[in-house]
Design brief:
The complex is a heterodimer of chains A (113) and B (114). Chain A has 113 residues and is mostly beta strands. Chain A has strands at residues 5-7, 10-13, 19-24, 31-37, 44-50, 53-57, 64-68, 74-78, 87-94, 103-104, 108-112. Chain A is 0% helix and 50% strand. The relative contact order of chain A is 0.33. The chains are: A mainly beta (113), B mainly beta (114).
Chain lengths: 113, 114
């Protein structure tokens, strides 16, 4: 049973560019959440997708957007990259039980130069 | 506002010694409480969770945590630490019925000396 998979694992961009990160949830899970983890910090909630719609959003600007496909996979898009966007981006999936338990992928490490 | 505080940024223990990692939260009611572990270059793995009932919860890898409502704390403990426990530990809170949105603390990095 595959867990949460994310791609790419590492990437380097320059300021002003755009990036797309991808996530496939754990089998049987229908909800995908994205978190940003800056160096030395805990993960911060960006947003959550359920039934192909954004259900909740954290305190992140509109430069951060996402999408969820009918197969529950998801994308995180960041436009007009800033140096401060450098971080580990974690995808987490959860199932219909809404127990609060999240299953995390290994993350995509984004470096903005 | 909801928040999680992990007062200890770094902790070093000797292998075989006991461990306690502190976690305090600020929340209007009793939240769901979690401890996750993150090894270098990896995602987060759930160690244990508290939703309701018995305030002492058991998790994987020999970890346990105790919920103390009066102190708004959820401290993680292990009686005997192994070298493989070296990692970063995160405490998190979630709102019951809050669709699995979690608020994390800043983490405690654990080093284990042989």
């Amino acid at each position: 049973d595959a867990g949460v998979t994310q791609s790419p694992t590492h990437l380097i961009k320059t300021r002003g560019q755009q990036v797309t990160l991808r996530c496939s949830p754990k089998s049987g899970h229908d909800t995908v959440s994205w978190y940003q983890q800056a160096l030395g910090q805990g993960p911060q909630f960006i947003f959550q997708y359920y039934e192909e719609e954004e259900r909740q959003r954290g305190n992140f600007p509109d430069r951060f957007s996402g999408h969820q496909y009918p197969n529950y996979s998801s994308e995180l898009n960041v436009n007009a990259l800033l140096l401060g966007d450098s971080a580990l981006y974690l995808c987490a999936s959860s199932g219909p039980s809404n127990t609060g338990e999240l299953f995390f992928g290994e993350g995509s490490r984004l470096t903005v130069l | 506002a909801q928040s999680v505080t992990q007062p200890d940024i770094h902790i070093t223990v000797s292998e075989g010694a006991s461990l306690e990692l502190r976690c305090n939260y600020s929340y209007g009611a009793t939240p769901y409480l979690f401890w996750y572990v993150q090894s270098p270059g990896q995602g987060l793995q759930l160690l244990l969770k508290y939703f309701s009932g018995d305030t002492l919860v058991q998790g994987i890898k020999g970890f346990e945590a105790e919920f103390k409502r009066s102190q708004s704390s959820f401290n993680l403990r292990k009686p005997s630490v192994h070298w493989s426990d070296a990692a970063e530990y995160f405490c998190a809170v979630g709102a019951p019925g809050g669709y699995n949105k979690l608020i994390f603390g800043a983490g405690t990095r654990l080093a284990v000396h042989p």
